Amino acid sequence: MPIVFRLDRVMADRKIALNELARRVGLTDSNLSILKTGKAKAVRMSTLEAICRELGCQPGDIMEYQPGPAGETGANDEE
Amino acid sequence: MRYFGTKSLSSVVVKILNVVWVLMIIVTVLAPLAGTAAIYFSTPQGEAFMAEVKAKHPDVVKPSEARSLDSASHEKRDKDWEQFKAVPLPVKILMLPYGLGVLGLVLVVLRRARALFRSFRDEPIFRKGNEQLMRGLAKLLIILGIATFDFNTLLIAVILLMACEVIKNGTVLQEEHDLTV
After folding, report:
1. Are B15 and B114 in contact, with CB atoms under 8 Å apart?
2. Is residue B106 within 8 Å of residue B31, measured between CB atoms?
3. End-to-end alpha-carbon separation of chain B, Å?
4. Which of B17, B3, B14 lies closest to B110 in space, CA to CA?
5. CA angle at residue B142 from B139 to B147, to 5 degrees?
6. Which pLDDT score is estimated for A71?
7. Is A44–B179 a contact, with Cβ atoms under 8 angstroms apart?
8. How far is B6 from chain A (nearest CA, A)?
9. Which residues, 6+ apart, have CB-to-CB distance to B13 below 8 Å?
10. Helices H / strands E in chain B, number of each
């Protein structure tokens, strides 16, 4: 998927552990790990809002668009 | 009424299929013996042998003869037997492997159906494994439907193939749901 999560970078800047952020955002550790490792297929607006609130950042700080090979849209990249 | 999961219709179907599975194995083991015996006793040599046995033991009564009340079914059985005797021997011999093949196919269908309903009982419905099991079952039913000239079986197979597509799409949605944070 061309959208890459930079959550680990922002978390390192804020010196916050994964389990601590998960607790504050109201997610399980495994769900936040899915997001951090880029395995997530979708992110709820409420989750994004909570992460930005707790990390004091903008959505653009934790997400990055990296164009993939030609033809890859990211929408149906599992097929 | 629950259809999936423990204590549901699926678990009842699993129990029924387990019983049917055991019965079918017994039938499949006995079928070659019964088929061979039927072919033998429909030949002149077999009839002569039976006549000899009857002459030696005149007091032995066949169960079908003992039940004189159900004369209609008795007559039908006799009619079927006469029809079977009229079939040429090579055709009768060919009927044996055909029958065994159909029985084998039914066993494979039952095995797959048991696996599918067990999966419905134990696991989430929208899984790739369920789609593969269902697709395999549908293909087997198509073969069985063609082999036995049974239109109903073919129709069920087509419905199953359509249900496969539902499971397939459901699996994609379930995966997306599971990976939505």
Report:
1. no
2. no
3. 32
4. B17
5. 130
6. 55
7. no
8. 27
9. B117
10. 7, 0
